[in-house]
Amino acid sequence: MSTSDPRPGSTPPGTPGTTGPEPAVRATDDREDLFPGPHAPRRTGPAGHLLGTVVGLVLVPAGLAVALVGESRILVAQTDGWDASTDVVGIVLVSVGVLLLAATVYLGVWSPTVPIVGGLVTAVAGGVFLYAPSLARDTVLALLDGTSWRTTGGNATVAATSGTVLLTGVLVLVAGLTAWQSRRRGKAIGDWRARHGAHAAEADRAAAEAS
Question: Which three-class secondary structure state does DSSP give residue 30?
């Protein structure tokens, strides 16, 4: 038997009505989920990041100041001996401060400069309160001297010198840096997928033309 004879049940190449091996063509459906929308997501421009810097400089100190005032009221209510007494206004103020700080972290999705700038400034101030408490106390009392906020400011300074300000600032700063790195990584992944999809589509067309 000749070795050129086709094996039983096989079809010789070039036989009419038959095709050779199909090219390894990627289905387009495999890449539809890479860019599901017809338009790219909106990016935050330089003006948006500048506005985010201003928002961070206002929102983080404001949220932390409100929380510290509330915390100081709660501490005053329990200083003479804890008897499960509470200060409702203090609890409300702490809750409002927490919401403002949470909003700061969430705004990192829009612009990482919001938590980065706000957290950095707060962390620096917290370092002063923790490592130079006498300087921080004298400065706060001097600023509030002669006002009705002097006692409240002094109590809030006690809470601030315990490390609360530094802890909050560092956590907000790290959250902002995480948001920034996530944006950079997402952009890198998107660029890679775009290049990979273009190369795959070009390979598909070349394979289709060669078949």
Answer: helix
